[in-house]
TrEMBL record:
<feature type="domain" description="DUF2914">
    <location>
        <begin position="288"/>
        <end position="355"/>
    </location>
</feature>
<feature type="transmembrane region" description="Helical">
    <location>
        <begin position="49"/>
        <end position="69"/>
    </location>
</feature>
<keyword id="KW-0812">Transmembrane</keyword>
<dbReference type="Pfam" id="PF11141">
    <property type="entry name" value="DUF2914"/>
</dbReference>
<keyword id="KW-1133">Transmembrane helix</keyword>
<feature type="transmembrane region" description="Helical">
    <location>
        <begin position="85"/>
        <end position="104"/>
    </location>
</feature>
<dbReference type="InterPro" id="IPR022606">
    <property type="entry name" value="DUF2914"/>
</dbReference>
<feature type="transmembrane region" description="Helical">
    <location>
        <begin position="201"/>
        <end position="220"/>
    </location>
</feature>
<protein>
    <submittedName>
        <fullName>DUF2914 domain-containing protein</fullName>
    </submittedName>
</protein>
<feature type="transmembrane region" description="Helical">
    <location>
        <begin position="139"/>
        <end position="161"/>
    </location>
</feature>
<keyword id="KW-0472">Membrane</keyword>
<feature type="transmembrane region" description="Helical">
    <location>
        <begin position="23"/>
        <end position="43"/>
    </location>
</feature>
<feature type="transmembrane region" description="Helical">
    <location>
        <begin position="167"/>
        <end position="189"/>
    </location>
</feature>
<feature type="transmembrane region" description="Helical">
    <location>
        <begin position="110"/>
        <end position="127"/>
    </location>
</feature>
Length: 371
């Protein structure tokens, strides 16, 4: 890629970018992340879908024309005159998409099960700032594009079709693979520099490797099941349904434990049932069966033992999620967790707690809330 493309026009904006060329991509990256954080809300909201579709479309267009600006066909034309800004555009749209994924996936992620995929998103988000130094690397361009494209379609297609299962995920992967290969073919045919810089089979191998990697993550249930998200998960003393309201009584922790609603040490009277209350967000009209899987940790064998699996169907559309609960009467003291999973065993979240038969003379901090 011609080094002249890294120089900017002598407009006020261009002079500013030229003066701060070292930090300009970082500023655009931060701008994309900040904008998404302030504006994105529900994954099925029209505004969110329009924004994300615009990002992926403009990213596609930016990468396409960025690889053509040194073509004689575009000499002294609009694309070549303003092609100097395309690296910043790619930086902004990659930052916008990756930050959107971090925002959405963080609402669904279970640290114990899907942290590895979530960390890849975090890495992509941070590494994007370093992308400016290797923007001309076509292998990096198309690999990053395929990853964000696959991730986008993995939750956009279920939102559109109002259905979520393994078949839908496979369809999303095939669509992203086909669209990425189409973009590469168009660039390859139109750009002489691309034909010189990349080896076709090497490029295809890298794209297929990413495709296999993402599918492997899905097979081993390491991808958060976006667009579903666990909005609330509580271990409670009682759950009562009154008309359209759930009245939940549970014990809260000290004020400085701000990252968890319930107290992890669950103190109960003997023979008292234990309740798990959850609310799961799903896109409008999407129906899905989820399960509460109750597990107890056996300190002797040092293994988690599944003691119960209670399922119920959720219906999407409610802002704060579809509410439901399960409970057990015959429980023993020790370390417990309830995994909230889909039919495909994808983990929405985990409610961890320790059961202690009540012995303390201290009065627990009990609250009752309506959901």
């Amino acid at each position: 890629m011609n080094s002249n493309l890294l120089k900017y026009k002598d407009s006020k904006f261009g002079v500013f970018l030229k003066k701060h060329k070292k930090y300009a991509p970082l500023l655009f990256f931060i701008a994309g992340f900040t904008w998404d954080s302030l504006t994105l809300g529900r994954i099925d909201r029209l505004y969110d879908n329009v924004i994300l579709c615009t990002y992926i479309t403009l990213l596609t267009v930016s990468i396409y024309f960025y690889n053509l600006v040194d073509n004689e066909k575009w000499k002294n034309k609009f694309v070549q005159r303003y092609g100097k800004y395309l690296p910043l555009a790619i930086q902004f749209f990659l930052g916008g998409l990756s930050s959107a994924y971090v925002i959405y996936f963080s609402r669904s992620v279970s640290i114990s099960k899907t942290a590895s995929f979530f960390l890849i998103l975090i890495f992509l988000l941070i590494a994007n700032e370093l992308f400016k130094k290797r923007i001309s690397n076509k292998y990096l361009q198309f690999c990053a594009y395929f990853f964000v494209n696959f991730t986008f379609l993995s939750f956009f297609v279920p939102v559109i079709l109002k259905e979520m299962n393994t078949t839908i995920f496979i369809i999303s992967g095939i669509l992203s693979l086909a669209s990425t290969l189409l973009l590469i073919v168009l660039v390859y045919r139109s750009s002489a520099s691309t034909r010189i810089e990349i080896v076709k089979w090497k490029m295809l191998g890298m794209i297929l490797a990413i495709y296999v990697l993402i599918n492997t993550f899905y097979y081993f249930r390491l991808i958060p099941p976006v667009p579903l998200a666990l909005d609330k998960g509580l271990v409670a003393h009682s759950v009562l349904k009154q008309k359209d309201t759930y009245v939940v009584t549970y014990e809260v922790d000290n004020w400085y434990v701000f990252w968890r609603d319930h107290k992890i040490n669950f103190n109960r009277n003997r023979n008292q049932p234990v309740y798990i209350f959850t609310s799961v967000f799903a896109p409008t009209d999407l129906k899905k069966k989820i399960y509460h899987v109750w597990k107890w940790y056996n300190p002797e064998t040092k293994e988690w033992i599944t003691l119960d699996k209670i399922g119920f169907e959720i219906v999407g559309g409610r802002d704060r999620g579809y509410r439901g609960y399960s409970y057990k009467n015959n429980v023993i003291d020790g370390q417990w967790k309830v995994e909230v999973i889909t039919e495909e065993s994808l983990v929405l979240g985990v409610v961890d707690f320790n059961i202690n038969t009540f012995k303390s003379k201290l009065k627990p901090q009990i609250v009752t809330r309506e959901f």
